């Protein structure tokens, strides 16, 4: 078993995304998932926040634990936000979760959610004695005392060991989490009881060589029962089809849907259908989470992003790229210029690779995933981009015939112009 667990974090750029939506009192059980609006304002609503983007340390269970925080670019304490907690895989880290945009959900969310990525002990989620559930309790308490959260809009998602932990949270905190989406998970972090309903979206590969799909089905079926859904054997794609099939269960209790997505693939967090440019996971998961409603945007949005050197505010930008191709390989160098009036810190640049291109290595940034819709994240030495300043980074890739440049550039979620 130890050997199998060591494989839970393969060298696939993956992250566990845990998104939480429940009560300000984490053990109280006051958040009913059947309610579509915020049940109560958290203590941070109306308060000038002290928390900023970055790594934070908290005492939990008698020891120091850490988590990463990412705020919306237009955060204002007058608006309750969704809360998304992303969980990493074994031998992964909270930095990995941030680097891939919380499994792509950060970009999908726009400015509608606060994102949190806790760090597991021993780079995993053994949850011994419930210590990791307690950690999430303590993080949410600290965050919600300082920031404005919609208590009916907490969610959880993770890959592999992170998927196991998101399942454990659904079991242990059904009155806190509105919905969870374990990707390639199994019952590795424990389950106190799956007797209370939680909206559930399970995702698993039919050829998973690390955690067999039967393990994912077992997690799913526990919430099929808890949510009162009609039992069935949902269709799954044929091996070699290069596709995925998503099934919404019938008969579920109102407000507690169950979905199951099986894909033709192995133990990966962001599978891509054959001939597709990017993974379908973030789109389907965000649609599943966002169906439960959300807070009404403020009538008078803030005139500028919140202060702080690490705030990843949206920014105007210009991009130029140069491709040098040969046979089945190429290099691409990208230069991004901040044409906005504010300094951008902790930048990410998203772009779409042509079909058939796969990144093998890169410089001056980290890249996740290696193909399709890619996010380049700053290195530690080039994280700040002043107005008028430029940053250059690049990568080497293989290709199957299309050696064109990337398209669809966006700097921290804001579309860039070419030139």
UniProtKB/TrEMBL annotation:
Domain CBM2: from-to ranges: 310-419
Give the main localization category: secreted
- In this entry, which stretches build a coiled coil? none
Here the segments flagged for biased composition (Pro residues) are 298-310
Q: Does the keyword Hydrolase apply?
A: yes
Sorted alphabetically, the keyword list is:
Carbohydrate metabolism, Hydrolase, Polysaccharide degradation, Secreted, Signal, Xylan degradation
Q: Which Pfam families match?
A: CBM_2, Peptidase_S9
Which residue stretches belong to region Disordered?
A: 292-314
State whether keyword Mitochondrion applies.
Answer: no
Where found, per UniProt?
Answer: Secreted
Checking InterPro entries in the record gives: AB_hydrolase_fold, CBD2, CBM2/CBM3_carb-bd_dom_sf, CBM2_carb-bd_dom_sf, FaeB/C/D, Peptidase_S9_cat, TAT_signal
Q: Which family does it belong to?
A: Belongs to the faeC family.
State its role.
Involved in degradation of plant cell walls. Hydrolyzes the feruloyl-arabinose ester bond in arabinoxylans, and the feruloyl-galactose ester bond in pectin. Active against paranitrophenyl-acetate, methyl ferulate and wheat arabinoxylan.
Q: What is this protein called?
A: CBM2 domain-containing protein
What taxonomic ancestry is recorded? Answer: Bacteria, Bacillati, Actinomycetota, Actinomycetes, Micromonosporales
